[in-house]
Amino acid sequence: PPLLLRDGFESQMVKSPSFSGASETVAKTPPQAVQPSPSLSKFFGDPASTNSLASDFFDSFTTSTFISVSNPNAGSSAPENLSSLSTAGGERSPGAAEPSHSPGMEKSEAGVSTASLEISQSPKPFSQIQAVFAGSEDPFATALSMSETDRRSDAWLPGEATRDILISVATQQYSTVFVDKESLTMPGLKFDNIQGDAVKDLMLRFLGERAAAKRQVLHAESVEQTFVGLRQLISCKNWRAAVDLCGRLLTAHGQGYGKSGLPTSHTADSLQLWFVRLALLVKLGLFQNAEMEFEAFGNLDQPDLYYEYYPHVYPGRRGSMVPFSMRILHAELQQYLGNPQEALDRLHRVKAVCSKILTNLEQGLAEDGTMSSITPENRQASIQLWGSRLGRVMCSMANCLLLMKDYVLAVDAYHAAIQHCPEQEPQLLSGIGRIFLQIGDIKTAEKYFQDVEKVTQKLDGLQGKTMVLMNRAFLHLGQNNFAEAHRFFTEILRIDPTNAVANNNAAVCLLYLGKLKDSLRQLEAMVQQDPKHSLHESVLFNLTTMYELESSRSMQKKQALLEAVAGKEGDSFNTQCLKLA
Amino acid sequence: MEVNPPKQEHLLALKVMRLTKPTLFTNIPVTCEEKDLPGDLFNQLMRDDPSTVNGAEILMLGEMLTLPQNFGNIFLGETFSSYISVHNDSNQVVKDILVKADLQTSSQRLNLSASNAAVAELKPDCCIDDVIHHEVKEIGTHILVCAVSYTTQGGEKMYFRKFFKFQVLKPLDVKTKFYNAETDEVFLEAQIQNITTSPMFMEKVSLEPSIMYNVAELNSVSQAGECVTTFGSRAYLQPMDTRQYLYCLKPKKEFAEKAGIIKGVTVIGKLDIVWKTNLGERGRLQTSQLQRMAPGYGDVRLSLEAIPDTVNLEEPFHITCKITNCSSERTMDLVLEMCNTNSIHWCGISGRQLGKLHPSSSLCLALTLLSSVQGLQVRSLFSFSFWYPGMLTHGH
């Protein structure tokens, strides 16, 4: 049954909350004391369909077991919030809600008392929102087209228990909804500072204080305390600082250190912050840390992770606030913790939902299986989105099986992935060929490489040729012919001089041919000429291994590498490959 | 692995590195969608990462080769490859450098160096490189002994040695079992178990028969004109996996007669096993000659020459038996007695004389039977009795 708010209310919906300041503020001003704002009733539409007074609406917040205490600090900086609201349209400035106050536990505790401050200021945001709408050309059409993108992107199929709770929230919106604490998501930071710079530490030990002082990295404080600053830290590979900044922003939202297990509320933005924090922890290899903080999110299907749970914040919106990529991350993390079976189980669940949604779409229904009139273009776009998501899951499953060393199933899974990502067929077939090389089944590897040659014939340009040459080189490696392998890797360099893989691999072949000095020369040249791409773990491992083989003076050369790294790499660099420890 | 004598100041340094095949670098893919906070950043980071596959960055198994980081394990039958590098760490030119690499096992000492000639001179910061290969043929302790002798600029002759100890382990566990058929064929079932720590691809497992036998391998079937193995899609052996191979040995014509009366131990042949591991690293082993204890036949032996695989109910069918007098002295007078069972019935005359059978010779007998019961019949077919002066026995 369609939710009460759905019909006819879409035009009043606030612009997509993912990255707009508007609804953020709404989410972040949940009152604890019960003084309703008169202007609010204007916003929540048709008085006839509501229970009467807005005061009943606010009552529901206070008398239910669900109490939102998100962003207790927002009150103290509300004026700053409002100024950034003037950015309309697709602008991503949700960071507005988290200005430059320093994070810390003491603030969040004080939050309770500042709540009353917030109430008196709450009317302001809404007038700003009106201004936003007044300003743009066709706000309703914009809102509608945005809502199509949102709808298909946020669609999800909740489990039965969750569905029941969401329905009861919708139908009892103005009276108490009691939700068992067990079904709620109450995350919090589990450690509050992982800033640190392994490169600088090594520099202090081996190159001295003066050299170490020259090391410059961006810290969490060095950038704008917003999503913009966060993106800056990510792109320059200062991921530890980025994790820290996410932590600060989440603390401002009320989910900081020590807040785990305490009632809270979620928004699309807060979930994006969690996703980025957890994703970066995985990229840094800090799997245990990620696991600790992921725990509170359960199976990512709790009712308070859905838009429908917040009908007053996201009126008319349906679906999950959990980014799809977060579901993939949640599953994949398990394989890095040594639980690949659990990873597979989780991926299967995601796959099942994707498949069901696709089936619904193909049968002319909406993503969630309800009757719907979606235009053909939108239906096509949705099918495309969910098809690519399905492809992502299947690749993930294949990777997991490979990690489990179940090569037979992994190969089957990669074949299935090809069905969903046909543009990656040559790369996936080459990858399968490499799996057979790893097992030692050279003949089957050869068959796959031959298939790749057939497929790439249709491709023009460098990529196809490079792939074929790379595979031929690998085949020769499998046949113990390092000289021929070297020839093919060198051939790739001829047509693509910046190909770091071919460069590295050619150098490796030289070592096996007894040419240590030549190999070192090639790798050193590569590192000097293209540090951006070649200061990579694998290349540096090879280089330091050969330094150790070459002479007793390897320490000096490794330190020189450290200097090169110091000048270019962010705090996320894995210093193990320098073998200085 | 290094076991070194006390250090002396030398102008040259010797370094050794085992050259197992390189491995492929694996990535940890982290992605997000355009609408997410990082936008295209995560994907951009993966594209910029040289170790990801261009166009399929989510693929974990990249193309970047990484050198081995430790000695690893070495197994019997594999090839031990090593880089030996002698580097002039000093700032003077060194003359007459001779590098020798020997492998010492519990039973022998082998020279592994590619060339035994001395190098005239080695300038500062230059090196002499050698890659040695050796197919490991023994299990247990092996010691790589590297000796370097050289002359300094001042004419002083110097010498030092380095020892590298490693263990060679057993890679396969092979068990065999013989089955004697009623015909002269012998079936060999070989169980091969991978007792290493990585997957193994069995490239070839063949039975090389001894001079007496012809062998047919029963590990592949013809399907749609192609030879398909009986092992299905699992083309490789995971650690601790076992595979059974089946071979059928038939004695060659010229030995057929003898095979029937051979007693004691006979040599059947040996198994030749070739396998491959990571990136085509090859191993090869053979078993020693497999021996089979010929079944005791006593004085008389009955074997089947010809019998149909399936017969129709209540239709007579023919078999051919061969009776062999295995004794070396006694001539036998044979009498054939036929016993019916509930399911098998004889068509012929029971109790007839078969004539005399001389020592070490045989006679062939054509008989007719019919079956009255469906299904697989494993029954004692019939009995015959024979006597010769002084002895009465029954044979079945």
From TrEMBL, chain A:
First-listed, main subcellular location of the protein, grouped into a coarse class: endoplasmic reticulum
Protein name: Trafficking protein particle complex subunit 12
Positions of TPR repeats: 466-499
Keyword Repeat: yes
Keyword field: ER-Golgi transport, Nucleus, Phosphoprotein, Repeat, TPR repeat, Transport
Quaternary organization: Component of the multisubunit TRAPP (transport protein particle) complex, which includes at least TRAPPC2, TRAPPC2L, TRAPPC3, TRAPPC3L, TRAPPC4, TRAPPC5, TRAPPC8, TRAPPC9, TRAPPC10, TRAPPC11 and TRAPPC12. Interacts with CENPE.
Membrane-crossing residue ranges in chain numbering: none
Biased composition (Polar residues): 13-23, 71-87
Keyword Transcription regulation: no
PANTHER family linked: D-ALANYL-D-ALANINE CARBOXYPEPTIDASE (PTHR21581), TRAFFICKING PROTEIN PARTICLE COMPLEX SUBUNIT 12 (PTHR21581:SF6)
Subcellular localization, as worded in the UniProt entry: Endoplasmic reticulum-Golgi intermediate compartment; Nucleus
BP term (GO), one: vesicle-mediated transport
Organism ancestry: Eukaryota, Metazoa, Chordata, Craniata, Vertebrata
One of the record's GO cellular component terms: endoplasmic reticulum-Golgi intermediate compartment
Known function: Component of the TRAPP complex, which is involved in endoplasmic reticulum to Golgi apparatus trafficking at a very early stage. Also plays a role in chromosome congression, kinetochore assembly and stability and controls the recruitment of CENPE to the kinetochores.
Chain intervals for the UniProt region annotation (Disordered): 1-46, 71-119
UniProtKB/TrEMBL annotation, chain B:
Any Pfam family the entry gives: TRAPPC13_N
Residues annotated as domain Trafficking protein particle complex subunit 13 N-terminal: 10-168
Residue ranges annotated for the Trafficking protein particle complex subunit 13 middle domain, each copy included: 172-295
InterPro entries: TRAPPC13, TRAPPC13_C, TRAPPC13_M, TRAPPC13_N
Top-level taxon: Eukaryota
GO cellular component term of the entry, any: TRAPPIII protein complex
Domain named Trafficking protein particle complex subunit 13 C-terminal: residues: 308-378
Transmembrane segments: none
Subunit structure of this chain's protein: Part of the multisubunit TRAPP (transport protein particle) complex.
Alphabetized PANTHER family for the sequence: TRAFFICKING PROTEIN PARTICLE COMPLEX SUBUNIT 13
Family assignment from sequence similarity: Belongs to the TRAPPC13 family.
Protein name: Trafficking protein particle complex subunit 13
Species for this entry: Neovison vison (American mink)
